[in-house]
Write a structure and sequence with these properties.
Elements lengths: L6 E4 L4 E4 L7 E6 L14 H15 L3 E6 L6 H10 L3 H18 L15 H13 L3 E4 L2 E4 L15 H6 L15 E6 L14 E3 L1 H13 L3 E7 L3 H16 L4 E7 L2 E3 L2 E2 L10 H7 L2 H9 L7 E3 L1 H25 L9 H18 L5 H16 L10 H21 L6 H16 L3 H16 L3 H14 L1 E6 L2 E6 L3
Parallel strand pairs: 3-4, 3-9, 9-10, 11-13
Antiparallel strand pairs: 1-2, 5-6, 6-7, 7-8, 11-12, 14-15
Amino acid sequence: MNQTKLKIYNSQSKKLEEFVPRRANEVSMYVCGPTVYNFLHIGNFRGPVFFNFVRNWLEHLGYQVKFALNFTDVDDRILQAAKEQNKKSSDVSEQYIHEYKTDYAALGLRPHDYNPKVTEYMSEIIQMIQKLIENGKAYEVKGDVWYSVQSFAEYGKLSGRKTDELLAGVRIDVDQNKKSHLDFALWKAVEASETHWPSPWGPGRPGWHIECSAMIDSLFGEQIDIHGGGTDLIFPHHENEIAQSEGCSHKSFVNYWMHVGMLNIAGQKMSKSLGNFITQREFLQLHPAEVYKWMILSVHYRSLAEFSDEAVDRAYASLARIYSSLSLADSILKDSVMAEKDLAFEKELQEQWSRIEAALNDDFGTPQAVAVMFDVIRLFNSKAKRGIKVTPKLKSQAEQFKKFVQQLGSMMGLFQHEASQFLRDLDNQLLGKMGLERAKVDELVQLRSQARAAKDFAKSDEYRGQLTAMGIAVMDTPEGSFWEVAKG
């Protein structure tokens, strides 16, 4: 077990807290997943990418992690989509669970330990509602079951909202069946002709909030270490989860609440209702998965992240710098010389890794960790370049450098591709965006090489000027000329 202390910003206490799991060396983590009625947009995947990293880092520290992300497959939006498409609601939800998993796998993220679906936990949901009624926290009216918010004295402890302030803004109680405007649905009565499940209160469907409480209780018990989701879920969803779960158990529900900031486009939250979104599927058809993951993890998870063409370009430039150095390391490692450990370089990397651990143990500070990695890249690039004579120490430095970058990358889901091929693919993407053909660039580079060989330096400079104007960078080495699309 790594004894370095991890600190997490707890959305409930509004402060950094040292992470201490409920059971030694074991972590339970639940993240609210999607409602499955359509393709997910790129904002929906910020949480999955980040919490995949959280799980990996916790495992790096020596914890055994059990990780659940749910699918809400019972929802009015699913029913509406089914009606519009003339399909069964279960067919719609299963289709988009499949599409979500396809996009998730395309991002190169590890599968979760559990992907519970609401329809699989209907009996547990009903049992929890019954217990809430028995505990005086809920009541039934005409087949509907409501949670009595004023029965839970600590309501608002996550969001900071006070029940009297919430009530002060209410002019008309829109549902006369409720005791209070603040009360929320645990079970909703429906006509028997609609999609429903039998219950002690008649045919109906569960409310949204009770679903997560019941699934968490079934998978992990009454208490959980980490509960995650987007900041848009703090109120009312997570606030209501607390009321439900603690209303049943009378125990603290979640030790550490973690909330991921929104992904904005043009200063607005990306959402289907606003129509300002691009689906994850569309994005991945245009760009490598690492571009998206880099955009997400190079920004601190609690910060707003801005999606724009400029942000995509910055991601390309950053990945190109990293993979260019990894490609250089690979070229050195191909040399037959025997490596001789460079103890001074190894010590330097150990010190830099300590800086990365400190950053990531401070509420998962990925931007700071990335900055350290670029320091290491600059250090390696100061010692190596294309065409340099490979010495035993240089080969050792290349080995240690590659291991360093890929160790961090393995936890971020980055930098595991064969470097030269990734760079080639990256350049092909950029050439397509620029309207250029690789064959045309190759031809100009070859003509420049011939001019240099003939010592026609004026012609050589002319070709370089053409390439530069096209956005192509050329590097000359004893083995020949290399080119890539200029980035950043």
